[in-house]
Amino acid sequence: MKRFVALLALVPALLASVPPLADAAPPAGACTSAESAHSVIVPEPWAQQLFDPKRVWPRSTGSGVLVAVVDSGVDSDHPQLRAPGKVLPGRDFFYAGALPGNYDCVSHGTAVASIIAADPVAGVGFAGIAPGARILPVRITDRALNDGGEPQPIDPEAVGKGIRYAADQGAKVINLSLSGYRDLPAIRDAVRYAQSRDALIVAAAGNRQQDFAGSASFPAGYPGVLGVGSIDIAGARDDSSQIGGYVDVMAPGKSVVAATRAGGHDYWEGTSFATPFVAGTAALVRSAWPSLDAQQVAQRLTATAAVARGGAGSPAYGAGILDPYRAVTEGLSGAPAVLPAVAPQAVDVAAEREHAWWARTGSTAKLVAAALVLAILLAVLGTAVATRGRRRRWRAGRSAATPRTVAREEPPEEMFLFPPPAVERPQS
């Protein structure tokens, strides 16, 4: 009987050690060629080392902020995304019906969501920027999003509906890791609608610089949208990261680590994955500074960015490189303070003349003093020579020859870190 009672006492611990069953498996037939699982990447990625988000978390984790990921869905069963309430059911706008958006066939949306809000876990260096934020998955495609500039890589109507849905659900940050070079009314109008509901839109600048240099990029190019470019581990712009006036801020996007569907991690590249670093930081700011509206949050992110190689305000780097710690902690009121203009003062001619006279007088006095000191030294030396000459009656003198001795060469001294060998030790 005692053994039975002891076994019953162990049941709760055993149940707690069993991982929860997957409740975000793709609906039957939804994923025709789902991406397979990946292994876990243990070392701390370079982007997390650069931003060191743990410094910010005592002040803000993004708690209370809902971030919409308009993408390929989000696998809410990933070990770093499965905390209760972290990933909401969301909505699928790709398939007809009332399917949720908390599943993913290709990992793109899962990777984006994890950069924003993945929980830290023991033994894994990767974690999201704002682990306290909640994710609203809005599924608008069943394949990896292509921000290579195709005219309509996905259905713009689905994107527009997804943005409007996110705004209606109360998302204060909307991540759009997609881009194109056409101004599509369905997306433009949806962006305006979300902005009217105080949602900050963060969008990828695009990865088509070599073929579309200087071209437009949407939705990053819409007014009020925060456009994000990509840098590498050296802080240089990724060669393919788009250049233009719509680039507002830069973030890591070259070989960055993020989660994949069905567990594990992978390395990702492109402005699509630089964008969630900015969206996650926006969640940190909105949580720490709840009185700021969306545009004040955007201004804060750009005002606190670190100056990049292109200088502040360049079309390649925008305001510079994102700095989550400064964005949260600096005591700005939403926008950088404007310094008052410097009023030129009238020159006092009389005072300037007096200053110049004293400067010249001081230089002259220094030269006279140096000459006097030199004359005194020469006089003392002359007196000593004359006295010695009179004593010797001005006869020449010769110093006594020193005896010649042959110096015996000695070996250089040695210092031993350890006691010398026995044959070299002094005999006692």
Task: Report on the architecture of this protein.
With 428 residues, the protein is of the alpha/beta class. It has a domain at 46-329: 3-Layer(aba) Sandwich (Rossmann fold), CATH 3.40.50. 31% of the residues lie in helices and 10% in strands. It contains nine helices and nine strands. The strands form two sheets. It has a seven-stranded parallel sheet, sandwiched between helices. A two-stranded antiparallel sheet has the order 8-9. α5 (185-196) links the parallel β4 (173-176) and β5 (200-204). α3 (108-117) packs parallel to α6 (271-288), α4 (156-168) packs parallel to α5 (185-196) and α6 (271-288) packs across α7. It is elongated. 41% of the residues are buried. Residues 1-23 and 406-428 have low confidence and may be disordered.
Give a nutshell description of this structure.
The protein is α/β, with parallel strands linked by helices. The chain has helices at 2-17, 46-51, 108-117, 156-168, 185-196, 271-288, 294-303, 324-329, 349-391, and strands at residues 66-71, 91-92, 134-139, 173-176, 200-204, 226-231, 249-252, 256-259, 265-268.
